[in-house]
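From the shared-data thread, chain only:
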Amino acid sequence: GMAWLNGTVEGGTPQEGLEMNNEAAKLGDPVALFTIGTVYASGALGAKQDYAKAFELLSQSAAAGHIDAIYRVGLHYHEGLGVKKDYKKAFEQFRTAAERGHFYAIIMAFDMINSDRGVKQDFNLAYRLSRTVAEQGEPYGAVMAASSLLQMKDPLKNEDEILYWMDEGIN
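Structure, as tokens:
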């Protein structure tokens, strides 16, 4: 169904792929739940945009551990899409996905920590999350790591590490 939906395999149409994904979602498949939830969120493929239905499906996928769904549930809470806006719940979702290495979840969690939105400012946590991607060579992760260290009490004690991450970001 996914291959027909995205057109990577011949033999079926995107609509037939969508129908197969709908059936898999009804059976509780996390990838299908995520896919159909995304379709409802975007209003793609002729579906009527329905944030509440999208949130329901994405939440089921997230509960099954689908990392992109966890991130998307966070976005729905953050923006109030199909659910009441709740920064605390948004941060919980972003943090869960971030701790598993989801890049955009790390950015959102980092931003929420910095802005004291949904979570108290905790630059140790921001540093730990940003290091996840900084250590993988992601320049923005290095910038976030350096920024976290700079915002801690007594940043001079972390001077060498701040300079290291700044250098990594530049390189």
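DSSP finds ten helices and no strands in the chain.
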